[in-house]
Structure formats: C-alpha cells, structure tokens
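Notes, p. 3: input format for complexes.
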Amino acid sequence: MEVTRRESLVLGAGLAMGAAAQAAVPGTGLGESLNRAARRGGRRFGAAIGMGRPGHVEGAFADPQYRRIIASECGLIVPENELKWGWVRRSPTGFDFSGADRLLAWAEAHGLALRGHNLVWHHPKWWPDWVTNYDFGARPAAEAARLLGEHIETVCRRYGTRIRSYDVVNEAVAAETGAMRETVFSRAMGSADDVLDLAFRTARRAAPHAQLVYNDYMSWEPGNETHRTGVLRLLERMRKRGTPVDALGVQSHIGSGNNVGDPSVFGPHDERAWRRFLDEVTGMGYDLLITEFDVNDRGIEGDIATRDRAVADYARAYLDLMLSYRQLGDVLAWGITDNYSWLQQRPPRRDGLPKRPTPYDSEYRPKPLRTAMAAAFRGAVPRRA
Ligand code: XIL
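Output follows (385 residues plus XIL):
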C-alpha cells in the first residue's frame, strides 16, 4: 500500500497514535481498525473504558475481551468515571488516583493515549456530598477558587504531558433554559462564568501542553435548540473574556428520546440547524471533538436486524456530517460493546430488551454500526493540518 506523506507523518507520530491499532482487528475478520480508518483523515478513534463503582474493580476494564477490542480498535481511551470528582475526591482531604493510574498505565502499555474527563462537572447532581454541603466560610469566592484551583492543579500536575487533552468543564449549560447551571461553586463565586474562567485559566497554567475542551450534550435533534443557543452564548462570552478554550466537545449521545430514522421527528430542517450551530462554533475559532458517541435505540421497534440497521444509518448520517468539518479532531465512543453501555442503566425500552447503542454486541461481535463508522471515517474530509 502506498503511504502518503500525510500518513507517514501520522505514523511517525508513533505510540501516541496507537501502535496496536495499525494491525488488523484480531479474531474479527476485520481488515482495518476504526482508529486506522480515522487516521486516514488525520483523526484518532477512541472509546470510554471504566471500572464500575468506586472502590470496586468491576465493569469493562476487568473484562479481557473488552480490553482486547479497545486495544485493537482504538488510538486513545477516556476513563468513564475514574477522573471525576465522584471518584477522585470522595473525601475532602485526599485524592484517589488509583483508577485513573491503572487505566493510564494500561493505555501506555498498549500504545494508547488517554483523555482527561473531567476537571469540573458543572452540574449540581454530580458533586460528592461533601462538596454539596461544603462550608465556604467568610470569604466564599476565595475559598471556592482555592478548592477548584487545588483540584485542577493536582490532577494536571500529576499526569503532566501524559494527558494531552482535558474536558476542563462538562455540562455547564442547562438544557431546558439555556442558562448557566447553578452549583455550590457558582453561588460561592458569584457567577458560573467566573467558575469556568478560573477552571480554564488554571488548567492552561498547570497543563500548557494540553488541548482544553468545553464539553456538553447539546445535540442535532429537535428539542435541543435552547441548549445549543445557551452553549453558543457561553462560547461567545468566553472568547470575549479571553478564557483559554480550544475546542467544543460534542458529546454525541444521539438518538435520545427520538425514534431514530423516523423522518417526522428528524429531517433536513434539523440537519441545517445543526450545521448552522457548528458553523458558528468553528467560526469563533473553536475546534470540535466527538467525545461520547453512542446511538440510543430506545425508541426503535422491530427485530434486532431492523434496529441495528436503523442505528447504523442514523449514525452514518450524523458522522458524515460531523466528518465534513476539517475542524473535527478525535472521535470517541462512550463504550464499545453493548453489555457495558451506560445506557443499559437508563430508562428501559418498552419491550424490556437490552439496548444496542455501540459498535459491538454483547457477545463481542461487530455490528452494522461498526461498518457505518468505518465507512464514515474512510469518506471523511481530512482534518485541518
Ligand atoms: C456517565 C457514566 O457512563 C456512568 O457510569 C455514570 O454513572 C454517570 O456518568 N455525559 C458525560 C459522562 O459527560 O461523564 C456520563 O458518564 C454520560 C453523560
């Protein structure tokens, strides 16, 4: 096979791109890994991997078959929960890096990079109780800045250049109103914008090598208009303030709540609105990432083949659109086999059957979604150099 200059540059980037993923996918009969297909356009493909509940080593990471698929398909991973405050900061006094350390060591041993998710989940639901009940004292703004700063610096300094991309802030915009969410930190500091500004500036100082991402779940589907507008306004304000943000992470949990493939609930009008959104984001100079891709098939009826086909077609349309943006970089799936998908814990399907939102089924067989993803990567507009 002829190796283009671009490919040889990418190959030359070496281990960080995932040496394992250059090979065929063992045991599947698949010729080219998803990461290899993504790299044709100068991107990487990755997936979330997790250990289950804090304190319990369980979940996908404990499963050698899951690890094998990740190692052969991916160029990078993201810890599903192990870098969140809910894991790392279960007590006010200490930091527990046991989960993230193990994932990072495993990733490095397999030539995979690791993204940091997340430094601040700006959503009242996701703080540990001790944070929610924290006494910020007589000077709450200063104490909030100290606590946030200490956390971000500790994480960034611990991993140094081993982590080169962070979701610095996650989900700060309320989907229903488009306004900024209130948390104990925004109350203590006076405004959510001040929290975000502090978080990004601290991350830039502590990890000057890293790509800094604002990550959120506004999606292309109808019902997301208010959320999208709120995110655009936030991105505008951050540009005006000089807040150091490099990219928007588009979570891409697509299909939620809609009947995937039903033209009456999703059509060209929605697609145009989504393009307008992405054009505005990239027009402000932000790059894009797909950080948590999966396809919720909760609303799709029919047999397995029908459901898998609908998921694959819907995903293909979405990925083709996203991959037409040169500003789009890494693409990550939120789990790679159906049995470990977080969506199995969310509201069930009407027929009670497990969902099928990821590229591999629960017996570790590749599905039509995987084929659609590979085809989308192969047809992608190359990433901006
Ligand atoms: C989810 C995990 O998958 C679950 O295991 C956990 O219980 C809750 O969080 N958006 C995000 C991710 O940014 O961190 C979420 O992950 C899924 C939605």
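The longest helix spans residues 140-159.
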